[in-house]
Amino acid sequence: MTAKKISALFLLLVLPSVLFLLRKNQISIPLISDEGEYAYEARLLTQGGLPYQDAYNQKPPLVFFLYRLAYGFSQNPLAPRVLDFIFACLTMVFLFLLTPETWSLASRLASPAVFAVISSTPLADLFSANCEMFLVLFNAASIWTLVKFWKSPRHLFWAFLSGLFCGLAFMTKQTVFWFILGLIPFFIWTYQRPKALKQTGLFGAGVLLPPLAFVFYFWIRGDLRPFMAEAFLNNGRYIGIISHLGMGAIFQHVVLWWGGWYGKKVILPDWPIWGLCFYALSVLQINEENRFGVLATLWLGTSFMGAMTGLFLFPHYFFTVYPPLSILAAQGVQCLKEKYQLSSRSLGFLILTACLYPIFIQSRAYFEESPLELSKTLLYPNPLFESKLIAQEIQEQTSPEEKIYVFGSEPEIYIYSERKAATPYITSYPLTLFPKDKAQISEELSRLQNAPPSSIVYCDIAGSQVIGSNLGIYFRDEIQNFLKTRYSLVGKVPVLPNDAPPQFISETNFPLFDDSNTLYLFRLKE
Predict the structure, then answer these.
(1) Residues 326/95, Cβ–Cβ less than 8 Å
(2) pLDDT one-digit tens code per residue, 51-88
(3) DSSP 313-375
(4) Which residues share a beta bridge with 10?
(5) Is the pLDDT score of 288 beyond 90?
(6) How far apart, in whole angstroms, are the C-alpha atoms of residue 406 and residue 459?
């Protein structure tokens, strides 16, 4: 093994340690809402239950099985974040392998180094083990196998593998559709004419294999209709959500947030990385000799399209942008080297500056703030530590066989309390944001009336209730009336903006429910 290869291997082994140091301060933050959903579905699988049928969800099922895999090694609720870390490390390996061997070693290593930094940015919920954090590995593997295919067109198995990884990504989140769509013209561009039909067939077979495997799984489990309806047929309502809400409060909040707080947290610290990326795009030439640059640009563009689908613009949606951004930033480094004949030392200094600058700007969040303080900085008023605390109270006040109900979008409470949900709706937003009709809400209310749960958590937080329709207001009001007639208040946990440890406060006076950023715990009257 040459000294150059030894150096590359050493640096690739060091980068996971850098990644861990950057994420260390965020990894202990309690589960967020999305993670709570996936964890609950994974727990259903281990107990013989079925996602979609026994617990509502609109995501494809692969993430549930990834969570189940993580919990097979550890019952710690945060175990999926360890798996997420492993996926991130493997993604960095693919990002290195993807860079052309003709590039300098420094330019090739810039790609995983940039990814380690930008994927760990202390921003909102980027620390979570969300769908996007897993599917980027499948995207990177698909791109790598596609590159292998065009280098060895006789080995058609690479075309099948590229499609297979696309299919796995699609079964992690539906927005990968744009990524697959973007690969099709590039795939056609690399066709070998005599075998074009076979290439297309193998790629398409690879894409279809994971969805068909899950269709077969849910068919034999007797759950095919709920799976198809929730994960695909009804999911189109997300695309039309803005036309449903108009320029409502939720959309305005997202736009203002993006224009202010998000811009400060991303553009200010990460501008050297984005600058390298835009430089690479500015000198990009679309021709046969630069197929790799075209492919990376398509990857970046389709990732943005996927993130923008539905126009919710949550930060973790844009995690899929980071791998192609890292590739193009590395290409920017290589272009500067070739244009200005930079030495290895100058190149190393350029890469270190681009990577260390964001860390320096946000050093307090990376290394000094406690997980509690950081959770307030990133996600207030989301009740993270507060949800964990009220779950502990539920554990003390109920027996394991008792069921509970959470009004709001905090399914992590079910995980931390180790209690089952009273209805399939483990989160309220399908009934408050875009309910299908009043009958859907009436059915949910009937479930609660006929088999009232022993405890109910009412999340008096606008961002948790996610009310975006008149039917949603009706459902919220009916839940309040149900609490007044059947339940007694036990206590509350205020969600405070400071980093003071949350406290459970015993309380018996029925609350006003005035969006007070508070979790209320109710107990069924005897």
Answers:
(1) yes
(2) 999 999 999 999 999 999 999 999 999 999 999 999 99
(3) --GGGGGGGHHHHHHHHHHHHHHHHHHHT--HHHHHHHHHHHHHHHHHHTHIIIIIS-HHHHH
(4) none
(5) no
(6) 7
pTM equals: 0.94
Task: Check: CB of residue 300 under 8 Å from CB of residue 273.
Answer: no
CA distance 372 to 285: 48
Rounded distance between C-alpha atoms, residue 11 and residue 394, angstroms:
47
Give the whole-angstrom CA distance, residue 410 versus residue 404. Answer: 12
Q: In Å, how far from its chain's centre is CA 159?
A: 27
Mark 13-32 as b/e (b = at least 16 C-beta within 10 Å): eebbebbeebbebbeebbbb
Question: Rounded to whole angstroms, what are the CA distances from 237 to 228, 413, 434, 468?
Answer: 14, 27, 8, 13
Contact 156, 202 (CB under 8 A): yes
Predicted confidence (pLDDT) per residue in 245-258, tens digit: 444 555 555 566 56
Structure tokens, 318? 């844009």
pLDDT in tens, 404-460: 999 999 999 999 999 999 999 999 999 998 888 999 999 999 999 999 999 999 999
The pair of structure tokens assigned to 14 is 């060091």
Measure Cα distances from 323 to 94, 143, 238 in Å.
10, 11, 25
Across the strands, what pairs with 489?
522
Element (H or E) spanning 421, and its range? strand 420-421
* 424-to-233, 402, 427, 466, 486 alpha-carbon distances in Å: 18, 15, 9, 18, 21
Per-residue model confidence as pLDDT tens digits over 216-268 = 999 999 989 999 999 888 766 555 554 444 445 555 555 665 666 666 666 67
Task: Assess contact for 466 and 432: CB atoms under 8 A.
Answer: yes
